[in-house]
Amino acid sequence: MSEGTVDKSAQKSGTVLEKLGLSERGWKFYAAASIPPIVVAGLALWYYSSRGGESAKKDDKKKRQRKARKAKKSAKAAGEGDADSEGKGAAGEASDMAKSTASVDGDEESPESMTDAQIAALDKDAKKKLAQSLKSRGNKFFQAKRYAKAIELYTQALRFDEDPVFYSNRAACYAADNNYPLVIEDCSSALKLEPRYVKALMRRAQAYESTERFRESLYDFTTACILEDFNNTVAASGAERVLKNLAESEARERISKRKPRLPSKSFITGYLNSFRSCGDRAAAEGEGEPISRADELYNDALDLIAKQDYAKAFEAIDAAVEAAEEAQGAGIQRLDDIYSLRGTFNFLRSNLDQASADFEKALEVNPDHVRTYLRKANLFTEKKEIDTVTKLLDKADSVDGENAEVYFQKGQLRFLKQEFVEAADDYERAAKLDPEFVYPRIQLGVVQFKIGKMQDAMKTFEEAMAQFPSRSDLYNYYGEVLAEQGGSESAINAFERAIELDSNNPLPYVNQAIATFQTTNNADKALTLIRDALRVDSECELAVAALSQIYLQLGMIEESLSMLRRAVDLAKSEEEMVSAITFRETTAAQFRFMSEHPELISKMMGSMQ
To answer: How far is CA 583 from CA 343, 426, 571, in A?
Structure first.
């Protein structure tokens, strides 16, 4: 979709992800994105194949059968399989508990009553045997939901042998009692002993989630997924759930605290270009007669918009409203345009309540102000209230059925709803009503491409370029269509032409960078182009997003994270911010994994050489 779309929140945020093939992906993709694909594919494969290779060398069928039986029993046990009791009846359990009190050498003293000195005097095998006995008893009490007694026995087992399983089993008891701090403590102890202990990772992840420590939970779920080559569906679903909670809660908090602000210059330009003009200038009714102060400030705002000095333009139109209200609307020519234009700026600043109030005021002044209906429709598109959008566009059509802007905005709504054939009809109507309005032609070419009418799309763009040879944005969108068709060289030429026509437009720099990187892997050239885009517009959301993804694909994860943090800051809407946070957090979790488990990556890569 081009920059002139009615849904301003979607104008740029999704574009770079679509170009890089990163849109509409699930958590599994994002989690894999920050490690080079060959590493992600091989991490868990190397880990499990190397462990499997050790047992394969022994090639002992009976041992493999015993291992299978043990796994089957473990699957039935509570606490994700760490408790490996036989599941006997109450009488058998009592008998086992009694028998297990005997010491290895026939000493009838209970292991629980042994002093530290007595334990220290035992050899390693004796310690392990007594520890396993205590663990087995603990498992039985766990299954009977007698968690306090199970905790006591696992604690005693740890006196004899600091086995990570004992910590994990005890954590399962604490989890059953909702004692999440101790779950985290015991799982952390287990992971110090065995950093790749997936069950402990899973338990700790769930405990972190229960205490709303979402970032830590995400890391543990992510690590479990990578270690198991993304075959752990419980970990994957947990990561998706936690990531959603983390991103949405942070985005809500940020948006609630953030003051309204204007987006990037390139974004505002793209939005304003979707209209034929921002409004008609106020003019003196007679020669030498003055115009009102409010009208003067309104004209100043239009001049500043033409210079793309949007911050000062907003100040001017805000002052125009104040002047109009001081004059109580008397003697003001463009009062409807003044309120409507301020509403547009408040809409761009994501101050939707004030924008709505401004639009209502404009329509009170002039109930037939078509451009206000269109701008108000854009606001409700942002709110995803599509029925209201349709009513507003229909109202505008009823006021002026020969208005090219009305049909263009109708086409944009149909485009958003993926009603491409109907959208093409609206764009054609808009282009016929106003042959000098370039955006209906751009969007017509795009939608013809979408519905597979390649020749018609090329013809539409060629005719438009013949009529508007100096429009940089036209060549930029033409290049996008060529790139989508796989015509990378032609697309790059179109982007270069767009830059020649307007070197202050950052979008063709970014598009050329993406096309160059995807087709030639020339990272230096791509990075130079994106830096040029940021030089032109330091807050260009598309450039920041593209740079983060190129850094990511080059393995420059710290640099990518820096850009992703910047993308979060630049996000215009809560929905866009959620997407940016999602990518930032998955990338950060992967980077932490690489930092904490470098041996997996280095060993795996070494085995491939």
So the answer is: 32, 36, 13
Give the per-residue pLDDT at 112: 84
User: Quick one: three-class SS letters along 162-201?
Assistant: CCHHHHHHHHHHHHHCCCHHHHHHHHHHHHHHCCCCHHHH
Contact 536, 505 (CB under 8 A): yes
Among residues 393, 451, 440, which one has the least CA distance to residue 418? 451
How far is the C-alpha of 421 from the C-alpha of 415, rounded, in Å? Answer: 9
The number of angstroms, rounded, from the C-alpha of 267 to the middle of its chain's C-alpha atoms is: 20
pLDDT bucket at 485, cuts 50 / 70 / 90: confident
Question: 420-458: per-residue pLDDT in tens?
Answer: 999 999 999 999 999 999 999 999 999 999 999 999 999
Q: How far apart are CA 394 and CA 8, in angstroms?
A: 20
Q: What is the pLDDT of residues 220-260, one digit of tens each?
A: 999 999 888 888 999 999 999 999 999 999 999 999 999 99
Give the 3-state secondary structure of 215-233. Answer: HHHHHHHHHHHHHCCCCCH
In angstroms, the CA 81 to CA 9 distance is: 47
Residue 194 region, left (φ>0) first, then alpha (ψ -120 to 50), else beta?
beta
Whole-angstrom Cα distance, residue 586 to residue 101?
Answer: 49
Quote the CA–CA distance of 511 and 279 in Å, as a whole number.
Answer: 31
Q: Distance between CA atoms of 420 and 456, rounded to whole angstroms?
A: 14
Q: What is the pLDDT of residue 229?
A: 85
Q: Is the pLDDT score of 494 beyond 70?
A: yes
Contact (CB, 8 A) for 476 and 511: yes
Alpha-helical runs (H) found in 258-385: 265-272, 293-306, 310-326, 335-348, 352-365, 370-382
pLDDT in tens, 176-197: 999 999 999 999 999 999 999 9
The Cα–Cα gap between 300 and 281 comes to: 9
In b/e form, how buried is each residue of 394-433, taking b as 16+ CB within 10 angstroms?
A: ebbbeeeeebbbbbbbbbbbbbbeeebeebbbbbbbbbeb
**Mean pLDDT across 111-132:** 91
Using DSSP's 3-state secondary structure scheme, residue 177 falls into coil
Can you tell me the distance from the alpha carbon of 47 to that of 122, in angstroms, rounded to the nearest whole number?
35
Q: What's the average model confidence in pLDDT over 101-116?
A: 60
Average pLDDT, the chain: 83
How many CB atoms neighbour CB 592 within 10 A?
16
Pick the closest to residue 235 from 218, 215, 221 (CA basis): 221
Q: How far apart are CA 385 and CA 391, in angstroms?
A: 10
Q: Give the Cα separation of 317 and 321 in Å (integer).
A: 6
Q: Which amino acid is at 352?
A: L
Question: CA-CA distance, 284 to 290, in Å (whole number)?
Answer: 6
For the cut 60, the answer to whether the pLDDT of residue 459 exceeds it is: yes
Please tell me the total number of residues recorded for the chain in this structure: 609
- Residue 555 pLDDT: 86
Q: How far apart are CA 2 and CA 71, in angstroms?
A: 56
1 three-class SS: coil
Total-model pTM: 0.75
Structure tokens at 515: 């096309």
- Contact call for residues 509 and 532 (beta carbons, < 8 A): yes
